[in-house]
Design goal:
22% strand, single chain, alpha/beta, 260 residues
């Protein structure tokens, strides 16, 4: 109903993610120099670029782990930069993060890892949590692996378990940090298909930090390329368009694996 009212009234939809004039620095060293972009709801956006361009730094600022030197980050219209502790805690419930190495608790089972956000942030009973864990694990093709320890999982299974935990609170925004890193091509392609399925089933907005070109072209509605030299956004658009028609040679070289 709310969406219908917006369409009828012409009200502009609030972006899922809005980065406004973000300046990120480590001491005196600038990493991101006043960058701005928005991500509409439901898009899969990949953030790419060479080593040292600030991909991980950007993700840490968007998710509130780092505070920018100046500028702002809004998630569904709410500033995570200006939020007080209570507001920030509420905002963080609206998104989930799957970190590059999985960041699973090694002494917890798969079920315990996925259940943790529900135990911390909800009033669900143990049985309700157990059912929701099964639901999330089934979504990432890990149904039946609840009692395994992280050490018992393959690299691809670790990533999928991290995805399940990121989705534990049914977030509207998901952040995936280098999801294909260290995986073989078959596992990587399977994970890409999973990302597409997650978007289809949940409608979540997904931002993926990656340098894997195959994944970029498989999953992206749009790509944002950062530049280590200028500290700015070098390109923003459909990856196929950037690869084939960008006026910037550096962009075309990157997306064509150094060959033109």
């Amino acid at each position: 109903m709310r969406e219908e009212i917006k369409k009828e009234s012409g009200e502009k939809e609030i972006p899922a993610i809005e980065v406004k004039d973000l300046l990120a620095k480590y001491g005196e060293r600038t990493v991101l120099d006043h960058i701005s972009f928005t991500v509409p709801r439901g898009q899969i956006v990949t953030v790419l670029g060479g080593s040292g361009c600030g991909k991980s730094t950007l993700l840490k600022h968007i998710t509130g782990l780092y505070t920018p030197f100046s500028g702002d980050v809004l998630l569904e219209g709410r500033s995570i930069v200006k939020a007080n502790e209570e507001e920030k805690r509420e905002i963080t419930r609206s998104f989930g993060v799957a970190y590059q190495g999985g960041a699973l608790f090694r002494s917890f089972t798969v079920e315990e890892n996925v259940a943790l956000p529900m135990e911390e942030y909800t009033l669900l009973t143990k049985e309700e949590i157990r059912e929701k864990v099964k639901e999330k694990l089934k979504m990432v093709n890990l149904d039946g692996f609840q009692n395994l320890m992280p050490a018992d999982l393959s690299g691809g299974m670790l990533k999928r378990c991290a995805f399940a935990r990121a989705m534990a609170l049914d977030p509207r925004i998901l952040f995936f940090d280098e999801p294909s890193a260290g995986l073989d091509p078959v596992s990587s392609a399977s994970l890409d298909e999973l990302i597409l399925n997650i978007r289809e089933k949940t409608g979540a907005t997904i931002l993926v930090v990656t340098h894997e070109l195959d994944s970029i072209f498989r999953i992206s509605d749009r790509s944002i390329m950062l530049d280590a030299e200028t500290k700015k956004i070098l390109a923003d658009g459909r990856p196929e368009d950037l690869r084939d028609r960008s006026e910037n040679r550096k962009v075309r070289l990157f997306l064509n694996r150094g060959k033109l």
